[in-house]
Protein backbone atom coordinates (compact mmCIF):
# COMPACT_ATOMS: atom_id res chain seq x y z
CA UNK A 1 0.00 0.00 0.00
CA UNK A 2 1.35 3.43 -0.88
CA UNK A 3 1.39 6.55 1.19
CA UNK A 4 -1.48 8.97 0.89
CA UNK A 5 0.16 12.20 1.93
CA UNK A 6 3.54 13.73 2.68
CA UNK A 7 5.06 12.05 5.77
CA UNK A 8 6.31 15.41 7.11
CA UNK A 9 3.65 16.64 9.61
CA UNK A 10 4.64 20.27 9.07
CA UNK A 11 4.21 20.06 5.29
CA UNK A 12 0.91 21.22 3.82
CA UNK A 13 1.05 18.95 0.75
CA UNK A 14 -1.85 16.49 1.00
CA UNK A 15 -2.17 14.94 -2.46
CA UNK A 16 -1.93 11.17 -2.90
CA UNK A 17 1.64 9.90 -3.10
CA UNK A 18 3.15 6.43 -3.48
CA UNK A 19 6.09 4.75 -1.74
CA UNK A 20 9.44 6.04 -3.00
CA UNK A 21 8.09 9.40 -4.22
CA UNK A 22 9.37 12.66 -2.79
CA UNK A 23 7.13 15.50 -1.72
CA UNK A 24 7.28 18.37 -4.20
CA UNK A 25 7.16 20.93 -1.36
CA UNK A 26 9.50 19.63 1.35
CA UNK A 27 11.31 16.72 -0.32
CA UNK A 28 10.35 14.10 2.30
CA UNK A 29 10.29 10.54 0.93
CA UNK A 30 7.11 8.51 1.29
CA UNK A 31 7.56 5.09 2.90
CA UNK A 32 5.20 2.13 3.04
CA UNK A 33 2.93 2.16 6.07
CA UNK A 34 -0.38 0.71 7.18
CA UNK A 35 -3.64 2.49 7.91
CA UNK A 36 -2.74 2.86 11.59
CA UNK A 37 0.39 4.75 10.54
CA UNK A 38 -1.65 6.91 8.17
CA UNK A 39 -4.12 7.71 10.92
CA UNK A 40 -1.33 8.78 13.27
CA UNK A 41 0.28 10.92 10.54
CA UNK A 42 -2.99 12.67 9.70
CA UNK A 43 -3.68 13.24 13.41
CA UNK A 44 -0.22 14.77 13.86
CA UNK A 45 -0.70 16.97 10.76
CA UNK A 46 -4.07 18.13 12.11
CA UNK A 47 -2.48 19.01 15.47
CA UNK A 48 0.31 20.99 13.75
CA UNK A 49 -2.25 22.89 11.65
CA UNK A 50 -4.36 23.57 14.75
CA UNK A 51 -1.33 24.93 16.64
CA UNK A 52 -0.45 27.18 13.69
CA UNK A 53 -4.01 28.58 13.62
CA UNK A 54 -4.00 29.17 17.36
CA UNK A 55 -0.62 30.90 17.19
CA UNK A 56 -1.77 33.11 14.30
CA UNK A 57 -4.97 34.04 16.17
CA UNK A 58 -3.02 34.89 19.32
CA UNK A 59 -0.55 37.03 17.32
CA UNK A 60 -3.43 38.89 15.67
CA UNK A 61 -5.05 39.56 19.03
CA UNK A 62 -1.78 40.79 20.52
CA UNK A 63 -1.08 43.09 17.54
CA UNK A 64 -4.02 45.34 18.41
CA UNK A 65 -3.15 48.31 20.61
CA UNK A 66 -4.28 47.82 24.20
CA UNK A 67 -5.29 50.58 26.61
CA UNK A 68 -5.73 50.57 30.39
CA UNK A 69 -9.44 50.88 31.30
CA UNK A 70 -8.60 53.06 34.33
CA UNK A 71 -6.13 55.64 32.98
CA UNK A 72 -6.11 55.07 29.18
CA UNK A 73 -2.36 54.37 29.08
CA UNK A 74 -0.81 52.04 26.49
CA UNK A 75 1.77 50.93 29.05
CA UNK A 76 -0.13 47.70 29.79
CA UNK A 77 1.08 44.14 29.68
CA UNK A 78 -0.43 40.70 29.99
CA UNK A 79 0.57 39.33 33.39
CA UNK A 80 1.02 35.73 32.29
CA UNK A 81 2.96 32.92 33.90
CA UNK A 82 1.04 32.87 37.17
CA UNK A 83 -1.67 30.17 37.39
CA UNK A 84 -4.14 32.37 39.28
CA UNK A 85 -3.76 35.20 36.71
CA UNK A 86 -4.68 33.56 33.42
CA UNK A 87 -6.43 36.57 31.93
CA UNK A 88 -4.95 39.42 33.89
CA UNK A 89 -3.67 42.68 32.42
CA UNK A 90 -1.54 45.10 34.39
CA UNK A 91 -0.89 48.82 33.87
CA UNK A 92 2.53 50.17 34.77
CA UNK A 93 1.23 53.74 34.95
CA UNK A 94 -1.66 53.50 37.41
CA UNK A 95 -1.26 49.98 38.83
CA UNK A 96 -4.56 48.68 37.38
CA UNK A 97 -4.80 44.89 37.47
CA UNK A 98 -7.74 43.05 35.94
CA UNK A 99 -9.21 41.04 33.09
CA UNK A 100 -10.77 44.01 31.24
CA UNK A 101 -8.68 45.83 28.62
CA UNK A 102 -9.62 48.48 26.06
CA UNK A 103 -8.88 48.53 22.34
CA UNK A 104 -10.84 51.70 21.55
CA UNK A 105 -8.45 54.66 21.14
CA UNK A 106 -11.21 57.29 21.39
CA UNK A 107 -12.44 55.93 24.70
CA UNK A 108 -8.85 55.67 25.94
CA UNK A 109 -8.25 59.36 25.09
CA UNK A 110 -11.31 60.32 27.15
CA UNK A 111 -10.09 58.12 30.03
CA UNK A 112 -6.63 59.73 29.91
CA UNK A 113 -8.23 63.18 30.11
CA UNK A 114 -10.48 62.19 33.03
CA UNK A 115 -7.64 60.42 34.85
CA UNK A 116 -5.38 63.49 34.50
CA UNK A 117 -8.12 65.76 35.89
CA UNK A 118 -8.76 63.37 38.78
CA UNK A 119 -5.05 63.10 39.55
CA UNK A 120 -4.64 66.92 39.45
CA UNK A 121 -7.56 67.44 41.83
CA UNK A 122 -6.01 65.23 44.53
* Main sheet record: 3 strands, antiparallel
Strand order of the largest sheet: 1-2-3
Number of helices: 2
Task: Quickly give the structural class.
Answer: mainly alpha
The parts where pLDDT drops under 50 for at least 5 residues are none
SSE run: HEEEH
- What integer is the average pLDDT? 80
Estimate nothing, just give the exact number of structural domains: 2
Radius of gyration, in Å, reads 25 Å
First-last Cα distance:
79 Å
Shape, principal axes of CA atoms:
rod-shaped
Oligomer: single chain
Helix content: 25-40%
Percent strand equals 5-15%
Number of strands: 3
Describe the structure.
38% of the residues lie in helices and 7% in strands. The protein is mainly alpha-helical and 122 residues long. It has two domains: 1-62, no CATH class; 76-121, no CATH class. A three-stranded antiparallel beta sheet has the order 1-2-3, with no helix packed on it. The radius of gyration is 25 Å and the shape is rod-shaped. The relative contact order is 0.12.
Would you kindly provide a brief summary of this structure?
The protein has 122 residues and is mainly alpha-helical. The protein is 38% helix and 7% strand.
Amino acid sequence: MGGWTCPNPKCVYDEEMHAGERCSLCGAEVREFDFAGLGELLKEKWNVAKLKREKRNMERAMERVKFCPRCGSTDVFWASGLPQLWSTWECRRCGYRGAVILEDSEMAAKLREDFSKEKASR
